[in-house]
Amino acid sequence: MKRLAALVMVAALAVSARPADAWEPETTHAGLAEQAALSSRLHKRLVTLGFTGGLFEQLTIPPADAPQLIAALKLLSPTHGSVPDARGRQVALAWLAAGAALADIPASTAANHFYDPQTKKGWEAPDRGVLAGFSDKIRESVGRAALPARGMPAPDWVTAKANPFNLEAFLGQYAKAVTAKTPGERSRHMAAALIAAGAMLHTLGDLGSPARVRGDEASHLDPMGGGPDDLGSRFERIAALAYGRLGVPGPSRVITRSRLREYFTGAAQEGDGLADIISRSHFSPATLPHSTRVGADTKPRLSRPQPALPPRLNLMAASRDDGTTLRDNKGTCLARYKVDRGVLSFFIDDECMLDQVSAILPEVAAYETGMLDFLLRGDLTIGVSDSITISGKGLGAGTVEVLVEDDRGVRTSLGTSQVPGGNDELFRVPTPAGGARVLAVYRGADAAGEPIVAVGAMPLSR
After folding, report:
1. Which structural domains are found in the chain, ordered by start?
2. Is it the case that residue 140 has pLDDT exceeding 60?
3. Which letter, b or e, does each residue of 199-228 get, where b requires 16 or more Cβ atoms within 10 Å of its Cβ?
4. Nearest to 300 by CA among 326, 281, 321
5. Model pTM?
6. Is the pLDDT score of 172 beyond 50?
């Protein structure tokens, strides 16, 4: 927690000096995280583990325990619902949204929220030739922002040791939220786990922005109008203006995958991760079809094979003053095109961007919901008779611990065991003489080799 809080605070002090370079954290990202939570198993899991209010359970990180983290959170706008009170307390849902809002901190980590499935690369700073096309003021702002030369691909960043909000941070805090002795300790650990989960959802959700998955870094250096250093993605700013936080749509469905990385990108050439689907389904401003002179066989050259153009473009409609629209098979605007002085060109205006945002956000929410369920997927079955039996399906080698909770909410370990995997029954211990209920935690890998924390709880018969 101390390491996480220190990194958060250092970056928060610099937040006003950096370009806006993600779905906006306090609006779009917080809204996406909330929609994922509302559609996932998180509420039920919290109740099972003793946080009886579920998503609306008050969880506390005392300011004295993490002063830098609390200070960083208070730099966020209180109107956006992710700022704890003076005691460091807010509901579970707000802690998840807080993690989504903090994931771009430190500022340099924002470069780790890109992934191009075609090149398998993350952020790469635009070359001098691209920057030469910008205005002097934008070039000055870029210089002050000190853009990193490269970023780690987003699918790698969520498990990287350098990431304070990585998978290991989530799993460690999640397990402690069950095994810690007192309710106060468990509350603190669960809040920390939700911060890490929210940050991971943010990293995945950023891949719903077409420029991030098509190697179009230059589109994140548009002037936003809030000042000379306010640079970012016009596409992502439109999402924030149109939907805010509360208006972000819910998931179109829930995506299920067997590996964490598959939510970001699939192994096959035509992968079904979020980055794969957005990359081949949408243009970005710098990856539109090239302008071409109209002739007998007009076939504009594509920057990438997909999205593909229809066999025939409506050049007559394109000759009108405002041109015409290229749509996908669902009717979503992909681009505008027009013919002017015999040259066919393509562009994406704000209305077209908004149409894309409206189609993309429910997909992003679907992937985020699925990934949140994936993080919480481990379930243990507890049998209580003369002995307590812990069972679980699809688990590999790991460690299982059994705890008993008394009427005060204090938990005591009944035993820990290493398990080899391959068996449904994991551990058996004698039933204690007293206690209100028993809980179990498994930490290891699932059948696919993915790290997992599996949990279970059961009342003790009186």
Report:
1. 2-262 (no CATH), 289-347 (no CATH), 378-459 (2.60.40.730)
2. no
3. bbbbbbbbbbbbbbbbbbbbbbbbbeeeee
4. 326
5. 0.91
6. yes
